[in-house]
Amino acid sequence: MKIGIFGGTFDPVHQGHMIVAEQVMTELDLAHVVFVPGGIPPHKEASSVRASAEDRLAMVEAAVEGNERFTVDRVEIDAGRPMHSVETVSILKESSPEDDWYFITGADEVSNLLAWKEPDRLLEQVVMVAATRPGYDLSRLDHLEAALRNFDRIFPVECTRVDISATGIRRRMLQKKSIRYLVPEGVRKIIEERSLYEGDGKRSEGGLLKEEIR
Q1: What is the pTM assigned to this prediction?
Q2: Which of 21, 55, 102, 181 is 20–30 Å from 187 (CA)?
Q3: Closest by alpha carbon to 121, among 158, 82, 93, 80?
């Protein structure tokens, strides 16, 4: 069985994330995709994450509701400490070591893979799916070939370009503008009911892996 892992800060999760997850899943014939919202970010200031870990988890759970092939795992939130992708993957794989695992992230993040913790070890555990937009210059990944012994485990997948970002959604909330259809409806309701992203106060407990496809 082939399983996808989709990690991110998800601050908030939006339709761009959902489109990437769906298109990668169908393109690679994955059995399902596990969303992993982050707890404490290893690569960014915790203060830059606006919603609490539990709020972000609730939003992701709302986003995947109704899609039986999407699930959510709180491994990073429950860790209570910064976790790198290589650690997260190791824990998730313990539950199904016989399965093939695919790590989904944006191509721009993959281009910075040498800055990740133990990238070759990560590539031994998963196929790295580099989600690209139409017209993306794949030569931007060429520098990795000489540096990574498992470069052949990086697999680009072209996805529909959707110009939505978590930053833009938070900005619209500050400006009291509608975010309807930018995020799944259940996510919008949580944001509004919990008054997330209103004003410049922080509700942060931490973030994750990388942020969005973003």
Answers
A1: 0.91
A2: 102
A3: 93
